[in-house]
What does this fold into?
Amino acid sequence: MQDIPDWLYKVLAAPNPEVQGIRERQNARLAAILSLCLLLIFSIYMLDSSLNGNLSSTTDLLSFVILLGIYFFSRTKLHSIGILLLMLLVPSNTFVNIYLGTTHHPQDTLYFLTIGYGLAAIFLRRRWTVLYCIGNVITLLLTPGFAPKGLIAYEDIYVQVTINIILGVIAIVATTHKENIEKERELLTRENTTIALHSLTRALEVRHKETAGHSNRVADITVELAKRAGVKNQYTLQQIREGALLHDVGKIAIPDVILLKEGELSEAEWEIIRKHPLIGFELLQEFDFLKDSLVIPRYHHERFDGSGYPYGLAGGEIPIEARIFAVVDVYDALQEERPYRSAWPEDKIIAYIKAESGHLFDPEIVRIFLAYLIEDCPAAN
It folds into this structure.
């Protein structure tokens, strides 16, 4: 598009501002360009017919009007519907003409189907391309029955059906290859983004003067307790781990003068601290692949009796992942030196968690946690 002047591109193919996302805007732009090209082809065809003294059929005129509508439709948020109509329009024009007996050239269907499969390869997913191919084959097989008697015989469409299937297979292979590339690109993006976020988490640990590996430790224990609490799905466990690793990412927005303050925080400073779960949630929700990992970053400071923040949820209102993590985070954090307090010995921490069972912590999670400590670390008994 760089060879086209900006003003011409904006007039002819630029999507409306309401179309968001890189892929969405690419599809809208391609749909606008393709529908515009077909519109021009139809215009030339109809003009040529008129100059030769042949009036365009009603279906051609209707197709032209529909195509004009699709062109404007394709530049909006509903461009996907425009693409679907465009794909259905190209073969249906010929099918209708055959049905009305206004054409004796079933090979025209093949030309239009080629355009349709080209659109399928660009825009559709594999399963929809398969359905598109099946639908076209069925329509072709039904055409002789719908066409005026004697206009088309079944043997006239065997070649069209065969070539239709070949085009369909090519389009299916193309969409499969496209999806594989997209998956590899998405996986690479996810890996790179996850590495960057984990590096950010480690930087926050250093900044907050936490013991190295705090996030990894609490993530490991949280996943183990989740298994003991009945979570079996591997994908869910992976999301729990991701959420635990990124639980404090919102602290990136907390000033050092508050985060590293020695001594007690004022109420105004606590108000700022209490914002970090929401900040972390807003930051991480920008990444689609983390959408199922946001429970712990968002709710890990909620407390069983409703005294937590930022929402003041209580009991079963708090997702189980967050109830588990609340116990683990406090257990690990109290073992660390902080600017405003000394590290606690483990027996004092365990006594504190027992005392707050039913208040700050879910009693059932506390029971599971204490059983884990006894099995994992007999000295804690």
Notes: The chain has a mean pLDDT of 77. The chain has two domains: 6-176, 208-380.
